[in-house]
Design brief:
This protein is an alpha+beta fold. It has 3 helices and 9 strands, in the order E-E-E-E-E-E-H-E-E-E-H-H. The relative contact order is 0.24.
Length: 157
Amino acid sequence: MISFNDLNGYRVDLSFEKGNFSIEPQHVLVLAQKGHKWLLTNHPKRGIEFPGGKKEVYETIEEAAIRETLEETNVAVYRLEWFAEYVVHDVKPFCKAVFIAEVKDIHTEAVHYETDGAVWLTSKELESCPNLRFHMKDKGMEVILKEVMIYEERWND
């Protein structure tokens, strides 16, 4: 387990082992790539971030990840795989599940609920992007991205 303080000053505990926390994940974050570019979204107030959000009462955490990605980017994902989870010790602590996924379909019609749609960035572009959301700049995201790349190298061998 890795612990750090986020840019808001809250302690965050990150684990790559499922079920390490007493809080069930009710939030999701989805990391997907196509052609060596990361799928992100541009929220008008928060900036560039990976798609994600809150689970609805009627859905599983996996269904939430698929729905949120589609709503925020117009991109359908599949082969969703749990990758990590973290707890943010905010005033009201919450747990977020991190998934990796494959891009299934990119819809051309522009239907966005909360964002300005999909943004595709290489790893290098992501590192130097000036308008990333705060959590995209913290130690946790750095560790998650590094672990995803290691995982993908092993999986592709």
